[in-house]
Amino acid sequence: MTAAVILLCILAALLELDTTYVGQLTFSRPIIAGPIFGLITGDLMAGIQVGVFTELLFVDISPLGGIIPPSGVMCSAIALILYSLGIELYFGFFLGVVAGIIYGHLDKWMRKARFKRMVFLEKNAAQNPNAFSRTVIMLIVSAFLLNLIFISVCAWICTQLMYNLVAYIPLKAYAAFKFAYMAVPWIGLATLIPAFRLKTR
């Protein structure tokens, strides 16, 4: 992995914390994360495009209550990592979408596992209030490390997959993926139409 890819993985792991764990300052929104990743990989326009497309694709899924949406950060990061390594952006984008969906399911599992430990952590904090800050920091660091492991492993798997498959992909598949990629913003905009229609009534 190049230095830019390593930096992007670290930053993606940090920005993913902004989704629900720390801050919630919307830096994890793809429309913000995508251009930042684009700057790191040296192609701002690709970062803006991936960020906007990812935002439009996931715009109608909000992390409210028990809903855990696909990760826009992971989607944008994987797409731009692959693009920086010579993979066509439309292939990288769809692999990124798959990575974002997988991460959403992994996050759901991690929250369930963490919830089981909450009883122990609450008792520990009640007995030793000074340990509360240390416990919170430990949970944030563990979430960051899990994010970093996921993005790094996922980037490596996707890169190896594409390097091994690219010679066998027919030309029609290139055209089909490119067409599907360009259709993404229109699909995203179509999901917004009912929401705007309800607000005008």
Descriptive labels:
201 residues; mainly alpha; 7 helices; 0% strand
What does this structure look like?
By secondary structure, the protein is an all-alpha fold. It has one domain (3-200). It is 81% helix and 0% strand. It has helices spanning 3-20, 30-41, 44-58, 72-84, 89-127, 131-165, 171-200. α1 (3-20) packs antiparallel against α2 (30-41), α1 (3-20) packs antiparallel against α4 and α2 (30-41) runs parallel beside α4. The N and C termini lie far apart (52 Å). The mean pLDDT is 81.
Mean pLDDT value:
81
Report the major sheet.
none
List the quaternary state of the chains: single chain
- SSE pattern, N- to C-terminal: HHHHHHH
Beta content comes to under 5%
C-alpha-based Rg, rounded:
19 Å
Cα(first) to Cα(last) distance is: 52 Å
Number of strands: 0
Which ranges are low-confidence, i.e. pLDDT below 50, for 5 or more consecutive residues? none
Give the number of helices.
7
Structural class: mainly alpha
Percent in helix: over 70%
The total domain count is: 1
**Rough outline:** globular
